[in-house]
Specification:
Blueprint: H1 42-49, H2 54-63, H3 76-84, H4 89-95, H5 100-103
Helix pairs in contact: 2-4
The structure holds iron/sulfur cluster.
Length: 107
């Protein structure tokens, strides 16, 4: 299993995996990806929506049951809903999307 990147951590050098090194969040404020309860997660989602590795990020977050933060454009609550609907990292990788409606569509 791949490890999940930490938003805001620069993984462009050293032990980074193939997708983590292209994480757009490594170039931004990590606090954006951990909004306090009730705070706005849209700034992080906007960055994720422009990130070329969002599919891999979301897939790994689902596989790892990542409990915090925004990953692949989705906060933990939405990732939990995907898992509850049977959407795994493999489904995300196969469909190459992070859009919940497409991921939850009948297979
Ligand atoms: S999708 Fe978002 S959280 Fe994941 S690597 Fe890209 S910017 Fe970071």
């Amino acid at each position: 299993m791949s490890r999940v990147t930490q938003p805001g951590v620069d993984l462009t050098e050293g032990e980074s995996g193939p997708w983590e090194s292209r994480a757009l969040c490594a170039q931004t404020d990590p606090e954006l990806f951990y909004p306090e309860k009730g705070h706005d997660s849209r700034p992080a989602k906007r960055i994720c929506n422009r990130c070329e590795v969002a599919v891999d990020c979301l897939a790994d977050a689902l596989d790892g049951r990542e409990p915090y933060g925004v990953r692949g454009g989705l906060p933990e609550r939405q990732r939990r809903a995907l898992l509850k609907a049977g959407v795994t990292g493999d489904v995300v990788r196969a469909r190459r999307t992070t859009v919940p409606a497409l991921l939850m569509a009948p297979r």
